[in-house]
Amino acid sequence: MAVRDAARGPPGPGRDEETAALLFERAHYRHDPCWLLPVPPRLCLACMLELLPEPCVSLVRKKHVLSCFQDALLRHASLVMPLVARDQRICIHFISMLFGKIKGETFLIQLTTQLKLEQTICCLLDECHKELCNMPSMRGSLATLTLLGKLVDAVPLLADKLVMEHSDLMEHLLRGLVYPNEGVQASVCYLYGKLYSSPVAAEMLLGHFREKLCPLFLSTLDGAQTKELQINCLGLLRQLLKYDLFVSLIMNKSALAESTEGVEGTPGKTSLPLVLKKLLLSRDETLQVASAHCITAVLVHSPVKHAPAFIHADIPEFLFEHLSSSSEVLVWSSYNCLILLAEEPLFFSKCHTVYGIESVVRSLQGSLKMNNTELHKQGLLLFAEILTRQPEEIKLFTSSAICRDAGRALQEAVRSPVLEVAAEALKAISAFLRKDHQSTPPVQYRELRALLEAMLSRCADFSQTPLSRRPLGHVSSRDSGKAILRRGKFLLSTLEGFRNACRLAVEFQSEPSAQENPFTAPSAEKEDTLEAFSEFLLSACDSLCIPMVMRHSEQATHPNLMEVFLSILHSLFIIVPHMKEKFSKKLASSSFIRLTLELKARFCSSLRHSALNQVCSSFLYYMILNLLSAPEKTEPLSKEELSVVSTFLQHGLPHISSRNPESLAFLSDRQYMEKTARQRQYCILLLFYLAYIHEDRFVSEAELFVAVQSFLLSLQDQGERPPLVVFRASIYLVSLCQDKDRALDEAVVSAIRKFLEDIPDLHLVYTHHPLLLKFFLSYPALMSRFGHRVLELWFSWEESSYEELDDVPSAGQSPLPASLAALFHMLRSSPSILLILLDLIYSSSVDTAHKVLIVLRMFLRRNEDVEVGGLIRGHFLLILQHLLVEHGASPSEGNLPLLLSLLSLVQLKNMSEQELDSMAMKLLHQVSKLCGKCSPADVDILQPSFNFLYWSLHQTTPSSQKRAAAVLLSSTALIELLEKTLALTWTKVDSPRTELLCSAWLLTASFSAQQHYASLQVHQTLSVDLDQVLKVLSFPKKKAALLSAAILCFLRTALQQSFSSAFVTLVPSEAQPPLAPENTVLAPLGTSQVLSLVIGLQNLLVQKDPLLSYACVGCLEALLDYLHARSPDIAFHVVSQPWNRFLLFTLLDAGESSFLRPEILRLMTLFVRFQSSSVLSHEEVDHVLQGAALTDLSTLSNTTLQALHSFFLQVQSMGLLADHSMAQTLQTSLEGLTPSTSSAQPPLDMLYLGGVAVSLSHIRD
């Protein structure tokens, strides 16, 4: 103590006065220091006990002492309470004294409760009881009743003691309840409320309530005027309504009051529903909320029993009105009441929902803008209850506007980030998607689509949310399981909503008024229609529902969820009938046959989950029929066959609930099969067949191979003839599952052949697949009888003609499609199949023959080691002769163009130069003869023919070239055809395809070169208009680089021959004036024509097309040689044009090493040769040589090396080498690199470019 006083410091004058006020000076010296509070205020408890009853002490001082004690008790209860509780007698005396002084103060309650002494509490209780009993009237009982109520509130256990030991106190309370003072009544109700909050006390007071309190209380509640009394009455009512027995008593009294209301001579009684209705109508929000809570408390016990009383009192009407309140508590309370009232059918039959649905929608829209999750959930729960329970005969939405607003509110709700709110929204959406809710015209299909999109999007977002993780990053298995379960429930609710949307679409199909919006303008897009909505359902299921279910099924599989999911898929077949086949194919290729069979095996065996079994069977039934109605790789079934399939599917599918091994064992059973068992086998086989067709091989191929064989033998043993579709499935599965090293037993092959021989045509059981083709061609017994027909079916079913693979050179082969690779493998292993293919040329349609010839062409191109050329060419010669005789003057009929294409193919196979044998010469003669019978319009014949002739001239030895040229030049008709074709180059009418013109110019150039070189005899000259040739080169056609290159090739040949060819006659234009004397030296060219030609060549070079650049440079070389021989000045003038420098630098702008391109090197060689330093200076020549010296010459092509060597020699011969050491190094490198040592891949000389046979060396050199 001394230490504490020292720490506090010396007392000041103010502190002495305060301490003196708290101490009773006359008695303080007698008191033990232990009664002095150890903390400020320095109050002595003993002094307080003597000071308070002293009459001479002022009331102000007494209140100040009590205030200081209360302050100490609040701030330092742990120090004060032990002092007070030290002596129990003193404590009781203290409480009694305080009761007389500060009765009704909260301080007394606080002190009593913190003492936690039973005797002090009993003392206070006794004092209260004594006070009430001794009180002559209730006028002064308010403080005591208030204190007693607060005491029971502070010590709840006191309620039981008060009822048991002071039961006569209840009579005083009844007197207070009828006393005409609402303050006293409020205190009595408050105390009653605390007493009835105890179940024990409530049970003991049951009789008291039944006999006395109930009518008084209801009357008091009905007549209460002050808010305090109203609140306390409602508080007591809330406590009473916790007990079912009290609820029954109150409601029975209310019912009796309502039944006697208005009866003459009957005293007025109070009905609880009417009282609560009056409170609902008050303008006090607190009373409204309390009234709603009381209604809810009544209905919770038995909505069916008690709801009619509130409905007859029209309470729903006012609850709906309160939904527009801005108070969240009132709205939430109204929601609760209405949810419970909705369990009573009378709520709907009296049309309360029709009256209030707009209020519900508006309230839901407003509440969703608030940040109150519970309010959102309750509102959606009410909306869902109304939508679900609303009778179909009573239309809920009286206008489409309300329905639209309801849908938009649900959209906003389902987008809520709070999962519980979104889940409630899903339930409401499911109930909303009902025909009677949506049938108000016009049907808002666009709004429904937006609602479903929001629903599916929310579910997709939730399903992709990662599982919650522990702090260390590990997923708890228990938490993970709960999360998966939540996702499953959410997904199930989503699917149920989507299923209801599908059901809605099905129901609307029979409603003409629901097909489309009748208020849509005729010219507007038909988006708001049932058809568009149905297609949306299919698209949404495909893009969202199916992926979500598949992802979830990887974690957990729930029968109820899968039942709803499969019923959706089944309904989509009906909703979008024009898409059912395509949708079925996609489902089958996505392993849905396997999925459904696994569900049946897992959940539907032993008669479990009959609903799931029915849905699975129905889904499989419709999917199978859809797949068989529009198959991709076989003929569709007839109506009779579909009827047969439908029958055995209906009988067999519901009984399939076994796993795959059991199904295979059942299929392999060779015992006698009854009809029902055989139908099950048919179903199993058909399911495996369709699964395999759509690449879903969930059954072991080896086991299925054995099972199908046993099944076929079983059919043969019992003398049965299966349905065609079943036999088709059997053959397909046997061919696909056949082991590579294991052949079928002869008995099975014999059985298959017998079954096939009984079928009118093989196409009835044919399924397009490479392995099926291999199956028929692998067994002589089947190939000899059905090989021709199966190959014909094969090519007729091939969708692609493989033309895109036809132009691929062998050096750059792309991978073959699986079907072609399989066929090529069979052709290599069995060359006799080629004879069947050749036979198809005669007997098949043009389309089939076209496919056969393209396939043969690719086969021969890709299999150069297969020596069949002699056989094929011999057959072609016979075929060509036969067709020429058969068709005569009209060779374009039949398959002749295709045969010529194949003839080009055989020629293409000979990539190296070979001597032309006698058969080749005969073919040349026949083809040239054929061309002579054609007109330029017969492009399909002439194009492959010209290619063949051109190829024969260039892909052979020089001696054979001479012989071939002599044969072709002897064909007058061919030369005349070429002249007519060339003349069409500059005509716009009846112009043939550019490819034919290219071939014609190349052939003409080749003929002219060979005739001039070998001095061959000319039987027919060919006339060409030189002016038109120059004009075409000056104004070339768009996208005709190859044609320009071919014409340049012809012009280069003419220039090299100095226009003196015995074969080609250059005819001047009729409008051209005679040449001036100074131009005769260049005849037949004029100076202006030369300059125009040079400009045209420059323009073509700028296009930077490789082949065209070769042709331009070659033509420019020939032109300058021609000019230099006749007029060197003109040649030097042409070379020295400034435009040439710009041209050169334009070409060099393609990259750093662009100067090493062969055509640019040849062009620079030309400029050096003619000493055109204004175009290419000495420094620039030096720069080019330095760049070449720094280049790895071994990586360059032979063509580039030759051009570089020529450039170097030209520079050397002109004496332009400045750096002799560098020049010596470059020369050594060039001499050391022969064409054979270059590492660059030598390019193919003969190419097909856009269907035109082209020799690169012919164009280049």
From TrEMBL:
Gene3D superfamilies per the UniProt record, alphabetical: Leucine-rich Repeat Variant (1.25.10.10)
Cross-referenced InterPro entries: ARM-like, ARM-type_fold, Immune_Signaling-Apoptosis_Reg
BP GO terms, sorted: meiosis I
Superkingdom in the source lineage: Eukaryota
Matching PANTHER family: BCL2 INTERACTING MEDIATOR OF CELL DEATH (PTHR12044), MEIOSIS INHIBITOR PROTEIN 1 (PTHR12044:SF10)
Protein name: Meiotic double-stranded break formation protein 1
Organism: Canis lupus dingo
